[in-house]
């Protein structure tokens, strides 16, 4: 359905049949209620109500025995009927929303309450995001029956459920993507009990307090993307992460409480995208020659005590894009070519350098060229689209 008028009703479309329909994509349509006509589509395999205003999934969805994909992302649904458990061929169950304005708060994601016996859906390959806070230990253990999972998203994890979750994850040998968010910002995510992590894991996203970096993360040879947010680690995580062999993208938000980050020579050999956000005490970033040799994209956000560009950034020969989001104006002003002790020489090789601020409900983008032209910083350019910046940061 593309740009369908709000007055359009599905029953006019289905009046003549479509009984053999296998795919129905209603994304972004003006639907407010689940279309009852769908109950007659016995052969339906794919149903998307993404970005609609549908709030309730009726019990008759249990009649769609051939359904393999149910996409409810960014809809208004928060709970699923128990009849979902009748859909034994269901492979992809996606239900979550993300609230994102200028930055992503801790509780920006919401999903759906986990139901008892979800382990009967043994064909599931994608499941996100389930809320575990009301599930209890038995439901966490039940996840271990979903051995075909390739993607798992978990919200509101409690510390006491960490051991059972580790036991369940060890049975998911096909897992490629894992996202875990604790129930509160300061709640510990306890994953130290995972002795044999999924060897095929490519994407790992952890949001919540970590007493220490899980010992198994550096051994993930297939890991491509890693995000650690609100970890508040006491020890520098770069020491343990720098030798993950195939890591391409790394995002760290409030991950470390120290004053200095150092990227050592020979570390992060395949890293292309690096994001650093909200390091409350960070005053210095150092890049040694030979570190992050393939880095192309560097974003630094909301590090209020960082007043200079990373020392050694001039060694990053492949760097194409450098962005500072809501950073002190003093940092960007150090790049003025006409200023005494200017640091412009450190970034002169980078094709795109921007200072970006959230103002009046939109991103204002100030290019480095405004300083080169002799203008006072900052001079706004044409604002970049918000979704473009979101996608880049994601």
From TrEMBL:
Domain (Disease resistance R13L4/SHOC-2-like LRR) ranges: 17-322
Keywords: Repeat
Pfam families found in the cross-reference section: LRR_14
Ribosomal protein as UniProt keyword: no
UniProt-listed InterPro entries: LRR_dom_sf, LRR_R13L4/SHOC2-like
Record flagged with keyword Methyltransferase: no
Domain of life: Eukaryota
Protein's name according to its UniProt entry: Disease resistance R13L4/SHOC-2-like LRR domain-containing protein
Organism: Ficus carica (Common fig)
């Amino acid at each position: 359905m593309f740009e369908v008028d709000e007055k359009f009703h599905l029953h006019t479309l289905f009046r003549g049949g479509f009984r053999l329909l296998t795919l129905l994509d209603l994304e972004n349509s003006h639907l407010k209620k689940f279309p009852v006509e769908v109950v007659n589509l016995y052969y339906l395999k794919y149903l998307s109500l993404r970005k609609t205003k549908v709030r309730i999934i009726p019990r008759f969805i249990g009649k769609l025995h051939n359904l393999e994909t149910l996409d409810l992302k960014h809809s208004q649904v928060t709970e699923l009927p128990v009849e979902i458990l009748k859909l034994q061929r269901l492979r992809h169950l996606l239900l979550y929303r993300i609230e994102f304005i200028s930055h992503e708060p801790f509780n920006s994601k919401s999903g759906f309450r986990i139901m008892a016996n979800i382990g009967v859906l043994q064909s599931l390959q994608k499941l996100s995001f389930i809320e575990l806070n009301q599930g209890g230990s038995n439901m966490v253990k039940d996840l271990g029956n979903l051995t075909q999972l390739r993607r798992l998203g978990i919200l509101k994890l409690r510390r006491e459920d960490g051991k059972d979750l580790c036991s369940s994850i060890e049975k998911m040998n096909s897992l490629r993507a894992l996202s875990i968010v604790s129930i509160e910002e300061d709640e510990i995510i306890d994953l130290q009990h995972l002795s044999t992590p999924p060897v095929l894991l490519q994407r790992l996203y952890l949001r919540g307090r970590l007493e220490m970096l899980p010992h198994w993360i550096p051994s993930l040879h297939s890991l491509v993307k890693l995000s650690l947010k609100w970890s508040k680690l006491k020890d520098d995580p770069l020491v343990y992460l720098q030798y993950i062999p195939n890591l391409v993208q790394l995002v760290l938000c409030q991950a470390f409480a120290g004053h200095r980050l150092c990227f050592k020579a020979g570390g992060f050999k395949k890293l292309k995208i690096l994001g650093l956000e909200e390091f409350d005490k960070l005053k210095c970033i150092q890049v040694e020659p030979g570190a992050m040799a393939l880095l192309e994209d560097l974003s630094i956000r909301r590090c209020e005590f960082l007043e200079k560009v990373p020392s050694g950034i001039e060694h990053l020969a492949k760097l194409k894009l450098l962005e500072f989001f809501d950073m002190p104006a003093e940092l960007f002003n150090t790049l003025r070519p006409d200023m005494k002790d200017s640091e412009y020489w450190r970034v002169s090789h980078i094709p795109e350098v921007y200072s970006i601020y959230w103002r009046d409900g939109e991103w204002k983008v100030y290019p480095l060229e405004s300083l080169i032209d002799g203008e006072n910083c900052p001079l706004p350019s044409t604002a970049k689209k918000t979704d473009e910046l979101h996608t880049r940061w994601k």
